[in-house]
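The material for today's practical consists of a large collection of protein records. There is nothing in a record beyond a sequence line and a structure line. As an example, a complete record with its sequence and its structure tokens follows:
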Amino acid sequence: MEAIERQTQVLDAIRSVMLPLVRLLIDEGIGYQSFIAQIKSSFIEQALAQVQERGEKDTDSALSLRTGIHRKDINAWRQNPMPSPKMTKRSIPNEVYARWISDPLYQHEDGTALPLPRMASDKNALSFETLARSVNQDVHPLSVLNELIRLGLAQLEPDAQGQECVVLHQTGFVPHSDWTQMLELWVANLAAHIETATQNLNAAPETKQLEQAAYAGGLTEASAHALAQLSRTLWADMLKEFLQEASHLYVQDEGKGTRLVRLGAYFHDGRLESSESLE
């Protein structure tokens, strides 16, 4: 395939991928000029990374050639670069949540999460406090509990004896009541998905990562809803098994590894715009 034809196809593909992102920008009142300012710095950063990876000379001309950005703008960026995107902080509530839904110690026989007494008189008895401390000794269990409640992921309920218990709500860490955390998860999940898919475009078959989807067309709204419910059930089962194995391997590796693994899933229900059918 000719380079120009390949570039044209990539631009067409990027435009299609960008449509929902542009809609998000418009919904949030973010205009074209603000977006372009962000993208310009991203072009420079990625071109600089490529130059450094290849051991080439880092000059304004080299970056301008790769990006199409004028050298004066590159020089201005060097004088005042935009701050790099901040890394998402380690989430102790997320880790407590993951342990709760994956560790058989904190589950019923059918695999559902046990309601846990908030505190236990016996330090060895199961409780939310012992769960939280098994994950982190530095953050007080009450702080973790308050955060899970604030995020709408857990709540306090009395048991049959009137003892205060913590009850889990979800089967995945999705903090619906905290828009900022939802956006951070959106960034982490979408960026990882795009990176995997992009790397797979040019990867050798034996090195391609898992990045697949199945779709079914010609369905009624009721059928689409039924598949949406099924997808949640399948994800809950997969999530539990994945976290159990991940916890086992983390202990085996003594937490000293350098790799970060992410497994994701999504469900999309949209309008049928062609003759697509089950695949």
Q: What stands out?
A: The radius of gyration is 24 Å. The mean pLDDT is 86. Residues 142 and 239 are 26 Å apart (CA to CA). The first helix runs from residue 3 to 27.
